[in-house]
């Protein structure tokens, strides 16, 4: 009989992470769930049990992450699937955002996931199996959105290191997938999740307009369902060879196609310059 698979999900107190954890537990998986406040995990999902381990973790703290993974291994004996989900959107143009605002977004979205990967890989490498899902965004594939440059840069970083990770770990029987969600109806664009610039500059009209549209119109009306995203992640985890790139949502599909077309157009249009540089 196959033993119960153990998932580790970061940022599980709300949104996509929360939906995924609930669904995993309904489907007889075991889950290590992390959040900045363990009380919110217990309130939302439940207390420690044979199948559930809620842990308070600050993903930006390498030591904290290491301890959490050790606790997960001590509780369940293994971890099979890792979902680097914790993250937030920082709105603001490159000029508006302070060094601190930009770095904080990278700390959580990029270095937080790196902390998890660094500390979980010793276990996956030794057990010679495992799957890692790194949640990027369609903004990690196409960055042409005024006022979203730093957030997109964090998600491009996630995509970049996931491609490398997939190559590094495949010899150990471990897969790595970068997930590019389109707009999903979570708290992502709500107060308390998304951050706006501390010092906005009104002259950046396109960015201000985009900020307003996201906060007032898109929030709550996103076209994609987190329950269905959770179903897809569970289904993909059962594939023999999970993909390196996974798009989620019609909007993500369209944006990815658009990006591929734009890239191909530039590649071909400027080809003579591109090919002119050899010795
Ligand atoms: P959400 O705001 O509902 O949930 C985000 C989760 O990340 C929460 O559990 C939160 O506690 C955690 N988190 C946020 N800031 C954190 C911090 N500073 N330190 C540690 N944890 C933190 O949003 P969501 O939509 O569920 O987001 C999940 C992931 O999906 C994020 O990485 C987000 O960038 C990505 N994403 C979301 C969408 C969308 O439309 N919802 C689209 C593309 C990508």
Automatic annotation (TrEMBL):
<comment type="similarity">
    <text>Belongs to the short-chain dehydrogenases/reductases (SDR) family.</text>
</comment>
<keyword id="KW-0472">Membrane</keyword>
<keyword id="KW-0812">Transmembrane</keyword>
<feature type="domain" description="Ketoreductase">
    <location>
        <begin position="5"/>
        <end position="187"/>
    </location>
</feature>
<protein>
    <submittedName>
        <fullName>SDR family NAD(P)-dependent oxidoreductase</fullName>
    </submittedName>
</protein>
<dbReference type="Pfam" id="PF00106">
    <property type="entry name" value="adh_short"/>
</dbReference>
<dbReference type="InterPro" id="IPR057326">
    <property type="entry name" value="KR_dom"/>
</dbReference>
<feature type="transmembrane region" description="Helical">
    <location>
        <begin position="131"/>
        <end position="151"/>
    </location>
</feature>
<dbReference type="InterPro" id="IPR020904">
    <property type="entry name" value="Sc_DH/Rdtase_CS"/>
</dbReference>
<dbReference type="InterPro" id="IPR002347">
    <property type="entry name" value="SDR_fam"/>
</dbReference>
<keyword id="KW-1133">Transmembrane helix</keyword>
<dbReference type="InterPro" id="IPR036291">
    <property type="entry name" value="NAD(P)-bd_dom_sf"/>
</dbReference>
<dbReference type="InterPro" id="IPR051911">
    <property type="entry name" value="SDR_oxidoreductase"/>
</dbReference>
<keyword id="KW-0560">Oxidoreductase</keyword>
């Amino acid at each position: 009989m196959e033993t119960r698979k153990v998932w580790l999900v970061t940022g599980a107190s709300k949104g996509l992470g929360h939906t995924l954890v609930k669904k995993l537990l309904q489907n007889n998986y075991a889950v290590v769930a992390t959040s900045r406040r363990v009380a919110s995990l217990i309130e939302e999902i439940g207390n420690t049990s044979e199948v559930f381990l809620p842990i308070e973790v600050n993903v930006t703290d390498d030591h904290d992450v290491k301890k959490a993974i050790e606790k997960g291994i001590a509780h369940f004996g293994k971890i099979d699937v890792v979902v680097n989900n914790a993250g937030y959107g920082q709105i603001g143009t490159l000029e508006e955002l302070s060094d601190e605002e930009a770095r904080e977004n990278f700390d959580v979205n990029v270095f937080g996931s790196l902390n998890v990967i660094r500390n979980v890989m010793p276990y996956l490498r030794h057990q010679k199996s495992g799957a890692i899902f790194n949640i990027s965004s369609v903004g990690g594939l196409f960055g042409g959105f005024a006022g979203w440059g730093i957030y997109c840069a964090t998600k491009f970083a996630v995509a970049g290191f996931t491609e490398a990770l997939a190559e590094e770990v495949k010899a150990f029987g471990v897969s790595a997938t970068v997930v590019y969600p389109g707009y999903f109806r979570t708290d992502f664009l709500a107060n308390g999740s998304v951050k706006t610039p501390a010092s906005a500059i009104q002259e950046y009209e396109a960015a201000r307009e985009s900020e307003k549209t996201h906060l007032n119109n898109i929030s709550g009306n996103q076209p994609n369902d987190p329950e269905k995203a959770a179903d897809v992640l569970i289904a993909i985890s059962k594939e023999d060879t999970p993909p390196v790139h996974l798009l989620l949502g019609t909007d993500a599909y369209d944006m990815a196609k658009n990006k591929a077309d734009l890239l191909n157009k530039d590649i071909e249009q400027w080809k003579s310059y591109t090919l002119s540089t050899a010795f």
